[in-house]
Amino acid sequence: MSAEFQEQIYRHTTASATRSWRERRGRYLLEGTRCKDCGAIHYPRRTVCSTCNSRNLEPFKHPTTGTIVMANICWQATGVHFGYGENIPRISTVIRLDDGATILAEVADTDIPKIVEGARVEMVLKKLHRESNSTWMYGYKFVVVD
Fold first, then answer.
1. Buried/exposed code over 94-114 (b: 16+ C-beta within 10 A; e: otherwise)
2. Using one digit for the tens of pLDDT, what is the confidence trace for 15-36?
3. Residue 15 burial (CB count, 10 A)
4. Calpha distance 95→87 (Å, rounded)
5. DSSP string covering 11-54, please?
């Protein structure tokens, strides 16, 4: 609440306990879906197969290892006034998991020269950001394994 608005303002970035509970298996275990009819795998989970339009899907746990297909480094400014603080890299990558599924994820705790196409990566759980209600949102990131 604020002094100007007495009612609580709904924010799209506020953590929802219900939504977090429903998405926990995908966020923490990389669980998607597999079509029982055509065998197509999907991440994140879906209710309809994008290959054959079947609704006959089952939960499927993807492997936590894969290879980097493409990487992009974006330098993010920190500090009170953006541009006057330290610049930190945010490394977004396209990762092909060992079962063939492709996901977009960040690479953390890795030296920048090691992040190249074809490098082997493994999933780890990390803090993603702090919500407006002071709770931490956790999720997956990847690290390069030697």
1. ebebebebebebebeebeeee
2. 667 777 777 777 788 999 999 9
3. 16
4. 25
5. -TTS--HHHHHHHHHHHHH-EEEEETTT--EESS--SS-TTT--
